[in-house]
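User: Okay, second chain of the day. Same drill as before: sequence in, structure tokens out.
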Amino acid sequence: MTTTTRFAGRTALVTGAGSGIGRDIALAFAAEGAQVVVAGRRREPLSDTVRLIEEVGGKALAVTADVSRGAEIEAVMEAAVDRFGSLDVAVNNAGVFRGGQPLADLSSAHWQEQLDINLTGVFLALRAEVRRMRSQSSGGAIVNIASSIGAHTRRPGAAAYAATKAAVSALTRGAALDHIRDGVRINAVSPGPVDTPMSLRPGETDADRADRLRSAVPLGRVSSRSEIAAAVLYLASDDASSVVGTDLVVDSGATA
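Assistant: Same drill. Structure tokens below.
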């Protein structure tokens, strides 16, 4: 199944890997030789991701976990090492968007959910991953999924989401400085509009979105999930061995 072997013999963890960008990232790592651990809250979509990897000869493990619960994310680390012997790469992709209305109309529950998953979940996973990787002589690489909405731009109806994702960008840079001497490289990717349901406006079809973005972004289209995966794999690979604490924006030129 492999076309290159940048990650042969390495174990990669991807959170939120049951669908969308997370699934494509997991498949991309497997295609380049990695053993992949996929984590998320629902078993069935994770099992589907594992099946897709195994159907083309890869190795994968599904572990259900809520990233906002520290004990559960610690269990993911243990499962990864028990099965494959190491944790070499981690991608903290799990995230939610709740809103679409002005901040004053956002419920406290939706604020808290985004904070718990988008920010605290990244912190808990990042902390557990670094602790594991710095105990290995080979260290490791971590990529957090932030967003172009946050540190790079804002949108009406997304203030809370933007706050959490901007914090992920800052957390990434701070953690990168803290742990590069431990042999752990930490970076982020900030996607813009991608071909997932999250980039659709209420009631909008894929065709409607394509029409809107022809003039809304310089490239004239959304990014594909595979393009986001390619950016993640670059940052996680030895090709980016001197890239530390960067936030790579992949947004069709929207924030250029």
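The mean pLDDT is 95.

User: Thanks, on to the next one.
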